[in-house]
Amino acid sequence: MQSLANTPTRYGWAMIVLHWLIGIVFIGQFVLGFVMVRTTSQRTSFELIQLHKSFGFLLLGLIVLRIAWRLGNAPPPLPRSVGTLERRTAPLAHFALYAFQIALPLSGWALVSVSTLEIPTMPFDLFVMPNLPLAESDAAESFWSAAHWYLAYAGIALVALHVAAALRHHFLLRDSVLRRMITPSSGGE
């Protein structure tokens, strides 16, 4: 039987599903953001922006759920083959990934909250998301727009580093670091 929780050697289903879902949404958001600001049709741009905001709120909810799950469900330790430097930097890299995955949607929410256009945000057309209690102004909109842009590019660079490290473990070091995030733990482990 496959375990929902982590074991001492592998991640459980909950962490694996959250990991890959967040990864797909995060990378998809970067692509969607890139496309939405380069489309020439105002209608298409508006619809893509609304979709981008919807997935941003989904991402924020998923990462909060993942952090809560991780706090109550310790990850398996790194394999013995992982060196001292990597053992020290891996937790910092994961913390940075979590921080960017929270900061990025929050900066987007701040951006739409301070916009003088006052366009409501309706995640997946289900409800109106209230704005953050921030003052509307062109200056604030410029600040949050730049912050969101820089966070997006820094976040995608961090994700690329994370992917490169996982592939290094799998193909060069041939250890279990990537496999344990693909294959869930079993109850008998």
Chain-averaged pLDDT: 93
Q: What share of residues is helical?
A: 55-70%
The proportion of residues in beta strands is under 5%
Distance between the termini: 10 Å
Number of β-strand runs: 0
Instruction: Label the structural class.
Output: mainly alpha
Uncertain residue segments: none
What is the 3D shape? Answer: elongated
SSE arrangement, N to C: HHHH
Q: Biggest β-sheet, characterized?
A: none
Rg from Cα? 19 Å
Number of helices: 4
Domain Cytochrome b561 bacterial/Ni-hydrogenase: 10-183
Transmembrane segments: 12-37, 90-112, 150-171
Pfam families: Ni_hydr_CYTB
Subcellular location: Cell membrane
Question: What structural keywords apply?
Answer:
mainly alpha; single chain; 65% helix; 4 helices; 189 residues
Question: Can you describe what's shown?
Answer:
- This protein has 4 helices and no strands.
- Helix content is 65%, strand content 0%.
- It is mostly helical.
What's the structural blueprint in terms of helices and strands?
Elements (H helix, E strand, L loop, with lengths): L12 H24 L5 H31 L11 H31 L23 H36 L16
Subcellular location: Cell membrane
Organism: Mesorhizobium humile
Membrane topology: Multi-pass membrane protein
Short structural summary:
This protein is an all-alpha fold and 189 residues long. The chain is built from 4 helices and no strands.
